[in-house]
Structure formats: structure tokens, C-alpha cells
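User: Hey, my collaborator sent me this sequence without any context and asked if I could get a structure. I don't really work with proteins. Can you help?
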Amino acid sequence: MLTILQKEFNAFLNSPVAYVVLGVFLIATGLFVWVFPDSSVLDYGFADLQTLFSLAPWIFLFLIPAITMRTFAEEKKVGTIELLLTRPLTDWQIIGGKYFACFLLALLALIPTLLYYFSVYQLGSPEGNIDSAATVGSYLGLALLAAVFAAIGVLASALTRDQIIAFLMAVVGCFLIYSGFDSLASVLEGSPAYYVSQLGIAAHYRDLSKGLVDSRDLIYFFSVVAVALQATRLALRSRNW
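Assistant: No problem. I've predicted the 3D structure and written it out in C-alpha cell form, which is a compact way to encode the shape of the chain:
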């Protein structure tokens, strides 16, 4: 699995896709956090990074599917999937290697944004006047959200040989699980609205963004990743048959 992970990760770094993804993410978040007056932390007057953590999921909604769309779809298109599946590798080693390569690239996009935190920390009055617990929880939420989006993207890529179709399927799937359940819950009332909202990512992400690291939220994210990767395995096994 580590060999496949290294191969996939190096392939990303040797292609313009990785740099376009990283560039678009950093430019978009940088403009909204520091430049645009309606969302700039400099004009907002409060030492927080809520703009970053509100915007990043929507950017990930498109960027992570752009990363994952080639994982299996390209292998199918060029005919190397059969060669890969006949190697002495288990399905989980193949899926895990490709999945973690995509996930690590998404995490790589988050690392430069730590400069935003240190900048706001220094600019605070007094210095350090920022809710660090909420910031850590928000970064954890973004990492887990990226893990779920990457799993959905890999599943979409395993279902088709066309990268564009894989991208569109992943975007729709990520949108539905992030915002779809929240939208459905908004038209309901009482207990049904609560339980429906808990099926989506947004409610759990909001809890983590408050600095509340609850085991139920962690179990939710890990469960969605596990289900998506298991579905990916079934998609590959059905192709073998």
C-alpha cells in the first residue's frame, strides 16, 4: 500500500493538477481572508478565522474531486487496471494507497493556511487574542471533511472510466452529504429535523468548529469514510467478475 501511495503522490506532484489545486485553494482563501472587504479579517475587527473555515469546505467540494477523479478512471481508460488488479496486492492495499495519496494532497493544501493563524495570533489585541481551541477543532473538522470527500471521490472514480463523469459524480455526492441533509432538515421541524441534520457533514463540522471534539462526530466521519471505501471495493470486485 505504501508503494502505491508513494507512486500516486509522486504522480500528483509531477502533474500540473496538484499545483493548480493548491494554487486555487490558497489564492481563493487568501483573497477572502485578507483582501475582500466584506470578509477580510482586517476589516472584521475580531481575531478569528471563521471566513477560512466557512469557505474552505465549499472550495474542497470542487478541488478534492479534481484530485480523485483520475485515481481509478484513468487506470480503466488506459487499460492498466487489469494489470494492477492481477498484481499480488489486496483490494484494500490498492484502494488504501490511492485514497491516502489523495487525502495527503488535500492536507498539504491546508498546511500553508497555518500562516493565517499565526498572523491573526500576532495581530490580535492583546497578542494571542484568538480562540485557539476552536481553531484546532476547525482544522480537525476540515481534515475529517477532506477525508470524507476524498473517499467519495475515489468511489466515484471507481464507478466510471471517464474522469469528467467521475468529477461530476464526486461533486454531487460531496454536496449532498455536506449540504443536502441540512437543506432537508430546514424544511422539517422538531426531532425529525435534528436526526436528518445529523446524517450530513455540516452539523458535525459545526460542532468541531466550536472546539467541541465529541466522539460521536469522530465516529460519524470515520464511518462515512469506511462505507465509501467498502463501496469502492465492491465496485472493483464487480468489475473483476
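In plain terms: The two ends are 23 Å apart (CA to CA). You can pass these C-alpha cells on to your collaborator as they are.
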